[in-house]
Fold this sequence. Notes:
Layout: E1 2-3, H1 6-19, E2 27-32, E3 55-60, E4 66-71, H2 76-90, H3 99-117, H4 131-165
Parallel strand pairs: 1-4
Antiparallel strand pairs: 2-3, 3-4
Helix pairs in contact: 1-2
Amino acid sequence: xxxxxxxxxxxxxxxxxxxxxxxxTIWLTHKRLTHDGxxxxxxxxxxxxxxxxxxxxxxxxxxxxxxxxHVISSNLxxxxxxxxxxxxxxxxxxxxxxxxxxxxxxxxxxxRKQRMAEPVVVNGPKRGxxxxxxxxxxxxxxxxxQAKEQVAKREEERAKVQRSVS
Length: 166
């Protein structure tokens, strides 16, 4: 991992976005940097907890590009302004949402809800031919009742949370 200064980081990130414009993936990672390079000890901890930590920002494309930068908390607003405008400019190359897949999932969910609403009719002989089919229907009816109870319980929990929030 190559550590670079903030301006170089932004320039390299711009070049990386340009190189992966048609096809490719980029991973961006933000994290608070708490390690200074030496061994961590517990005895010299700041009792007030007012120590300012720099921010570590990493970028990789999973192959050859692999670099990072440290941003000091005092420079963070300036860096985030430049970084944010760079990201906004580069997000135009993102793929559009797959609406067909979303529609298919919504239809499947609606079908599941409809099946939950329809009662399972248990008919057929208790003994002889068709016994196994009847047993499967009985089990399906029991599972459906359990699922309805779980849905009701979830709805009740959501209503409780809504009442406590408002």
